[in-house]
Amino acid sequence: MNTTQTGRTVTVALPAMPYLNSNQRLHWATKARKTKAIRDAAAWATEALRQPPMGAVEITAVIHPKTNRRFDPHNLQPTVKAAIDGIVDAQLIADDDSSRLVSVAFCAGEKDPSGTRIDLIVKEVAR
């Protein structure tokens, strides 16, 4: 996969809220409510940036933990998926199919004692 960054980068900061993680076993209705809340919050945060639509993108989810304990950033994949759907709803990217969303990566960010938070770094790339 050869991609080249075109220089345009947008950071969507999700607000602190109850996030979904891969280890949870929630009732479907509870999971649906949380998913919708995350999706709506991401759409709102993206719309507030007032950015024109992007073409193909790579997204890096930077997970800022509350403590210094070890954790698996990729366990927040259900939250990141809902947030990406919110970014699509806000029309920063047209869709999250493989022609527009080239890759999604997870990494640990710096500790934030106020609570776990997620920044989604959206980089426009040429394919």
TrEMBL record:
Xref: SUPFAM superfamilies: Holliday junction resolvase RusA
Its domain of life reads Bacteria
InterPro entries from the xrefs? RusA-like_sf
Q: What is the recorded name of this protein?
A: Uncharacterized protein
